[in-house]
Amino acid sequence: MKYVYVLLICLNCCVVHGQHNNDVYDLEFRQCLNEDGRWNITPFMAGNGGSACSVDSTEFVQGKYPLIFRSIEMFPASRSYYRFSARLSQQLFIPGNYQQLEFTLNSKCLNVNRGWLKVVALNEKEECLYQDSVQIHKKDEWNRCVLKLPAQGACLFRIEIYAVGEDDWLKASLFSVDRIQILGDGKNIDWSESLPVFP
Description:
By secondary structure, the protein is mainly beta. Helices cover about 10% and strands about 40% of the residues.
């Protein structure tokens, strides 16, 4: 019985390790709130506005809780809010030799004036080769926006996600992100080869 217990622990560790290997860049936003998380989240500043970021435990999307950005009240129970904005970004290395990459963001928003997904492709010297952006659907339901970008000669990719609220301090804004899927030439990427990590 003791050996069976040890075997179950080992199997569990293997499964958890495998899950982390498949999401080395936290494309499902599971580790965003950790200090050593891959995503850079712009902090709230009263003069510039911003948002409060947390895990939304009221909704379960594709087997996990999404990440949500909420408006911050100027004073408790005032129902007046600082200007809403949310920004996430990270730079990642994508293994393989692809002609084109496809980035798909699953998100939803409420009282958001504009939002977009932007990707910049860089070479080994971190020089910009390609960049493009696509608007995020401003709907209070889960939607996917897709961005296709050439990948020839690029090895680093900077992903930036923005959302800005309406110019109405009486309206609270929400912006939720579930995951980003990245395909290389229409196929899943083998992230186990993604060894180089650049700051």
